[in-house]
Amino acid sequence: MRNEEVRGFPGGIHPTDGCDKTLTMGRPVREYWPDTVTILSEQSLNARCRLLVRQGQRVTAGQRIGEPESFTAAPLHASVSGTVTEVKPVTMQGQEMMACVIRREEEPVTETFSYEREAADLTGLSEEKIVDGLLTGGLIGMGGAGFPVHRKYETVKRIDTILINGAECEPYLTCDCRVMLEHGYAVVNGTRLMQKAADADQAYICIEDNKPDAIWNLRTILEKMTADGVFSQEKPVQVKVLPTKYPQGGERQLMESVLGREVPMGGLPADAGVIVSNVGTAKAAADRVLGSRPLTSRIVTVTGEVKEPGNFLVPIGTSAKELIRLCGGVTVSKNRVIAGGPMTGSCYAVNWEDGGDLFYVTKSTSGVLVLPDRTYRESPCIRCEGCQKVCPVGLIPYQIDFAYQEGEYDLCERLYASECIACGCCSYVCPSRRELTLRTRLARDIVKQRMRERAVRKE
Predict the structure, then answer these.
(1) How far apart are CA 345 and CA 369, in angstroms?
(2) H or E segment and range at residue 253
(3) 426: nearest Cα among 448, 449, 393, 404
(4) Over 70: is that where the pLDDT of 3 sits?
(5) How large is the average pLDDT for residues 79-108?
(6) Which among 169, 343, 388, 427 would be 20 to 30 A from 115, CA to CA?
(7) Mean pLDDT of 103-113
(8) Which residues lie below 8 Å from residue 380, measured CB to CB, with a gap of 6+?
(9) What is the C-alpha separation between 426 and 301, in angstroms, rounded?
């Protein structure tokens, strides 16, 4: 494996020694098709869709069943073929939304396309056709953010670089690693599509150095494409190897490490000439544009304190409870069940014993994680400034924490709380076990809302 110099980003942490990844990194993806799926009308925060189906209606896999009602939403599609048994409101972490329950009545159709085993011919595809495919296929960011992919290409900014995020820096999760190992050609062809859609000069697939097999696989594919003359007619795609450090996969951290560029305060990657997407999103782009398959399934890591951890390809709407059962159930009675990873995921249950429902897989659900429950008591801040040293965006979290608790929102704004990425580094290193990430994120949301209100008043 060739070593390449990277600039790196300030701060960051090493939350594990890698044993968490070994639970599932070497386990090939298994398919699981439940008898029923529950598809939420909001696949990410405030991304509302209007459901187009009714109880008793017959639907087929890939059929459009939801229309976006907000800027941050993308179209919804049935993930299985069957009958809609219910259209009902459900509550997820205190937020009510509509959902449709589909009883699966047909076996999934599996079909292999040429883009999954060789370089695809992109000559007949225009930028407009590719972006339209991203829209109609319902693609959103599959790394957790859940922002509609096509929106990134509607910018008027000049985009010169595409970064495909395969860092997967979040502990425990290995679904992206398995995508790069088992669907390497689809990832590379999807990257080529996204590069062409943006007319970008360069594209990098960015991988942390703790995934040597994935690095080797993608480099082998790119070397073969180069030998076959693919990049004699196209702008090149390269693999960029990054040191293992959390949160290497953050958009801004990735840009700083690979390109040495910073996003302006309050800005987006496009303001610095970059579009960042997840490797799962790149594969989904190939599935949609080259295989005419909308985003109806994804790979999910089920890991932690379960009997048999693994990676599973499941339809959108699969129950997390079923996946935990599929892995043999939880192995500790005092536990926390998390959607996503331990640093940025959301906790849905404490001391869960296979009782009530947990949550349902959405397009942006990367993992179902069971961790031992540990209770900590907050102590007074000792001004060690450890949180400041590890903050990857250069904030002073303990000062924002004090300002927020005192209601000093002007001070929160002067401390740049709006730039918090809620990575969890500050809380992780705090010796006083203070809820720095939670309160800094709350301060961020308040500051951003105040900034939006000021902008409206000026109009």
Answers:
(1) 9
(2) helix 251-259
(3) 393
(4) no
(5) 95
(6) 169
(7) 90
(8) 432
(9) 26
Please give the share of the chain, as a percent, with pLDDT higher than 90.
Answer: 90
Sign of CA dihedral 450, 453, 457, 458: positive
Does the pLDDT of residue 24 top 60, yes or no?
yes
What beta strand segments (E) does 12-107 contain? 30-31, 36-40, 49-51, 58-59, 64-68, 76-77, 82-92, 95-104
14 touches 291 (CB < 8 A):
no
Residue 93 has pLDDT above 80, yes or no: yes
Q: What pLDDT is recorded for position 2?
A: 46
Predicted pLDDT at 5:
58
**Angle at the Cα of 289 from the Cα atoms of 288 and 294, rounded to 5 degrees:** 15
Ramachandran region, residue 273 (left: φ > 0; alpha: ψ -120 to 50; beta: rest): left
* pLDDT above 70 for 47: yes
| Helix (H) or strand (E) run with residue 298 in it | strand 297-304
Tell me the C-alpha to C-alpha distance, in Å, between residue 345 and each of 64, 65, 341, 371, 402.
28, 27, 5, 12, 25
pLDDT given for residue 6 in this prediction: 67
Tokens of 180: 């790069």
What is the distance between the alpha carbons of residues 439 and 76, in angstroms, rounded to a whole number? 33
Q: Is 326 helix (H, G, I), strand (E, B) or coil?
A: helix
Structure confidence by residue, pLDDT tens digits, 140-155:
999 877 899 999 999 9
Beta bridge partners of 346: 339
8 A C-beta contact, residue 442 and residue 399: no
CB 168 within 8 A of CB 249: yes
Q: Which residues pair with 337 in a beta bridge?
A: 349, 370
Mean pLDDT score, 407-413: 97
Across residues 166-178, what is the average pLDDT?
97
Nearest residue to 73 via CA among 115, 44, 34, 52: 44
Amino acid at 373: D
